[in-house]
């Protein structure tokens, strides 16, 4: 880095000036547009104090405006001062009383819901339902974690440290974690697109890009495999939370058809055969399942889109896509798009969407809505949950994980909750980017059958 030091006049810009003053000398700063100027001593950031000053009109040679005069502060002391127009001072929008928490205390839980305070009440029915199913459930306000685990700082590390603490110190550590609230790559809203880092997104570097990893929160040994099953509901408003949580609490396993919609992209320039890979996954479905197969092949985008939308509206229990994609679409031609989600009419027959593609789970952009979010938030149907990626990865690792997921969901001695099945699926690939970038946009305690 480069630090550039240069002399400048004691002249305010935008009615503010940060400057130093030798202790035994008075300082005269000019360029203020108002006589209502305040000066604070910020030499010690932990002991800020206001400084008495004199304000007078600027001299003719200096131009129009006002000057502030700071008296000497004592010998052998260089002070750092900040002068500003009183009208420009930021005002506190609101102050809320803190409710003391005790998450460092030993507890027992199978399921932890970490929520932004705006959605705490909305999570109540889900917590009650899972408790009735035998899962000991705790609901945690994200602000409490900042207070207890990061000295009040807004950081994803507070959530990870909390979960690590439960793993080491609680009498029974949680197996499932649900994050309720959107995350953003711009937590301070520098881009003025909205303060949507409600439950922080953790950004990691991958081979092709920086992106979010919810798996990171419970990956305590850094192998890309989380020790707890993590899901997220990336909602921004109470209305969105109500829609999504009502879908989850209203879901009864087996309420959809024993059916699958299997959609495959055509072979692209990279030569990967998505149709063959989809067939390998399809062969893992139970014999009783009916299957609608849609191959993009040489068909036009509108024809394929119509088949996909009609297939979703028929209410299958699972929709599987293997192919290329971006944040809000399947392929560049938009075989399924974010705007299609709002027009779906599958009602309460809500499938699990498995999207083996790139970027469909990119929830952290404050100016965009990913396809997974659009499907989860759709009011007349859409998705029960979506498993997909926030990043860009290679198809071989995706396909291996896809096969293992179907084996976990539909094979074995009994049905697993989504979080368990997805934890198992990650073990099928050694591709670190695939392991870290796949996210469950949904509740990890949900069962699909």
Notes on the structure:
This protein has 449 residues and is α/β, with parallel strands linked by helices. The chain has three domains: 16-88, no CATH class; 111-218, Gingipain r, domain 1 (Rossmann fold); 253-441, Rossmann fold. The protein has eleven helices and 21 strands. Helix 2 packs across helix 3 (156-169) and helix 9 (395-410) packs across helix 10 (418-426). The longest helix is centred in the last third of the chain and has 16 residues, at 395-410. The protein starts with 15 loop residues before the first strand and ends in an 8-residue tail after the last strand.
Write out the strand line-up for the largest beta sheet, numbering strands in chain order: 15-14-16-19-20-21
CATH class of the largest domain: Alpha Beta
Structural class: alpha/beta
Overall 3D geometry? elongated
Strand content: 15-25%
Question: What name does CATH use for the topology of the largest domain?
Answer: Rossmann fold
Runs in which pLDDT lies below 50 for 5 or more consecutive residues are none
Q: Give the tally of β-strands.
A: 21
Number of domains: 3
Percent helix range = 10-25%
Assigned CATH architecture of the largest domain: 3-Layer(aba) Sandwich
User: End-to-end span in angstroms?
Assistant: 56 Å
Q: What does the largest sheet look like?
A: 6 strands, mixed
What is the radius of gyration computed over CA atoms, rounded to a whole number of angstroms? 28 Å
